[in-house]
Amino acid sequence: MSKTTTRLIKIIKKHASEEKSYFEAQKLIAQGADVRTPFSNDYSMIQYVTEEEARLRQTTPFKAENCRRIIKLLKNRASELLSELVLSNNGKLDEMRFLVKLKASCYQQQVYGPLGLLGKLLNQSENHVRLDVVRFLVETDEEAKFALTKEDDLHQTCLSLSLNNPKSSAQITNYIQEQLNLLFNKIASTHSEMDVNELSQWICRGADPKTVDEDQNTVLLNAVRANNVDLVRVLIANGCNAMHKNKDDKTSIDIAKNEPLRNAQLLAILSEQVINNKLKQLIAAKKSSLKKEEVLQCLEEGANINGRFDNNDSFLHYLITHGGTQEMIAAFVNEFNADILATNNAGLRPIELCILHDKNPHNVLGTFLKLPRVSTDAFFNNVSQKSIYQYAIEQGLKDSADTIKAELNARLWACVTSANTDDKRNQSVLSEAKKLINYGAQINDRHDIDGEYKKWSAFHVACKTTTKSFVEYLVRDLKADCTLSNSDKDHPISIAAEYGQLEIVQFLRECRGVQINVVNKKRDTPLHLAAKNHHYRIVRYLILWGADEEARNSSKETPLVSAQMSETNTEQDKIEKDKIVNFLRSLAFSKDHNTRDEVIQPTKLTIDLDTCELLSHSDVHEIQPHARDD
Questions:
Q1: What is the Cα–Cα distance from 267 to 259, expressed in whole angstroms?
Q2: How many CB atoms are located within 10 Å of the residue 483 CB?
Q3: Cα–Cα distance between 441 and 379 in angstroms, integer?
């Protein structure tokens, strides 16, 4: 016996209840003291401290607490030694059993995560995994057995690790599967208080609900016998067969009917599933030839359109994976009220299955996306935390991704073009627009439908119809391109100038890359467009910031000529036109007589909306480069 072990025994025997003993024992164990060494009377260290703790628990609780700290220290060391034996592949089962007597844990979740020591063993690649060691871990410790039902952060299970590890074997995999199935089959009687949603995950992790016990009862039959309504509901939703018969030739419905205390709710769930199976079989058989009348008949008989079965799929899931037509899918949602957000065990909704199963030209997916009940929120999966556009990209389904993107862009167009000059109302529009862009819509997409706005972006329309704050949000937060042109080569600043949006013109003029003398297809500048549309204040503003009043469009017209040739429909238009013509003439006159500054600068400062407080003209070459985001 080593000196450190001798000293550890002395501390345990004489000073276990003292506070400093924990630190001394910890130090000795780190130096190699062996916690397996018994006292002279064959008492183990942990056995002695455990009895000491029980003796002191009532009389001196603080001393009992010191003992508990020592106990934990001894347990942890025994567990470490057990891990070393298990992972060394030496198969010393007697030594392992002895360490378990010393309270070593076969699970060790805190050290190895949810799959415990068994998961660590199955995940190593140095040694072949021994079946006898696996059996020892599973059958010795109840907690270690439940490691079979867990998954780690990488969604691996003990079963999947064994399947994928060349150092494991088919015998080990089969054993793990059998133990998992047995645990699941008996869960209604052994752990009735367990969360049923957690139990549904066991199926995803490999538990087979078809497994039967010695009486040929499935887990569903055992849940019915235990009168566990919540578990029955979950099992039905995961494909358990309500018509399976045990060795007494009884189905789950038979058992429910013959229970001393009949549970009406339980019977209703089971009876509904029988009818649901009829609809399921109908969908599988008819596929694309399924008719609405056939579905209606099943629903009238009591089938639940939102019932669940294999993999927690709904009928809408099932229809999509079994060749359902776009007309039938629309009927399921619009007429039969199928839940479009129903999520199966894989975290997939019907819309994700459309992405996976629809083929070119993606008519089914296109129809689904345009269903009235498919809101913007449906484009995001709260389980996977991914948009369906991202999901399609990750699955390598470019055509599906393009279909989704086109729908998102169409919705963004409809959203932004619904905005107006009411900034309070526009808040909800901006919130919706941001959501659509987060899900994959493109703010700079050009509208591709014939008409007035062909090849316009939503931002172009916003510059025409909304407010400065709305446009500013699109640029600052949603990254709209201030320099993007439409099919007529009109830039946002041109559109704002044409439609009298002075504040938007002012904002855009300060944005990086925006040119005040940019031209469109007809070579009209923003000044031409403002002049011919009678926006006097914008004309003054553009001139102030260097707009070229001598620029000529494709018709050889200067802004002055464009203004002179423009038609007016109202008295106000005529007044504005006259102001513009006089103003632009004065510029030409002042230039000819080298007195431009004196002509356009008032002798007295007047705050006047007509002049926008614009005091003097500046030549282009005198303007220093400046941008809002410099």
A1: 11
A2: 14
A3: 11
Q: How far apart are CA 413 and CA 372, in angstroms?
A: 17
Question: Cα torsion for 372, 377, 383, 388, to the nearest 10°?
Answer: 80
pLDDT, tens digit, 9 for 90 and up, residues 47-88: 999 999 999 999 999 999 999 999 999 999 999 999 999 999
Q: Does domain 188-262 have CATH number 1.25.40.20?
A: yes
- Tell how far CA 344 is from the center of its chain: 15
Domain positions in the chain: 3-187, 188-262, 275-374, 404-622
Q: What's the average model confidence in pLDDT over 29-53? A: 91
Give start and end residues of each alpha helix (H) in 57-207. Answer: 61-88, 93-101, 109-112, 116-123, 131-140, 142-146, 158-164, 170-185, 187-190, 196-204
Residue pointed to by tokens 């429910």? 256
Band the pLDDT of 595: cuts 50, 70, 90: very low
Distance in angstroms (rounded) separating the CA atoms of residues 52 and 342: 57
Least Cα distance to 305 among 345, 267, 334 occurs for 334
Asked: is 3-187 a CATH 3.40.210 domain? The reply is no
Distance CA 273, CA 256 (A): 14
Q: Are 450 and 466 in contact (CB under 8 A)?
A: no
Looking at the domain 275-374, which fold is it? 1.25.40
The whole-number pLDDT of residue 517 equals 97
Picking from 313, 312, 321, 325, the residue whose alpha carbon sits closest to that of residue 364 is 325
Give the tokens for residue 424. Answer: 């309070």
Cα 354 to Cα 71, 383, 395: the distances in Å are 57, 17, 12
Q: What share of the chain is helix, strand, coil (3-state, %, to 5)?
A: 60, 0, 40
What are 314's strand-pairing partners? 308
Same fold, 188-262 and 275-374: yes
Distance CA 346, CA 381 (A): 12
What Rg do the C-alpha atoms of the chain give, in angstroms?
39
Span 404-622: which CATH code?
A: 1.25.40.20
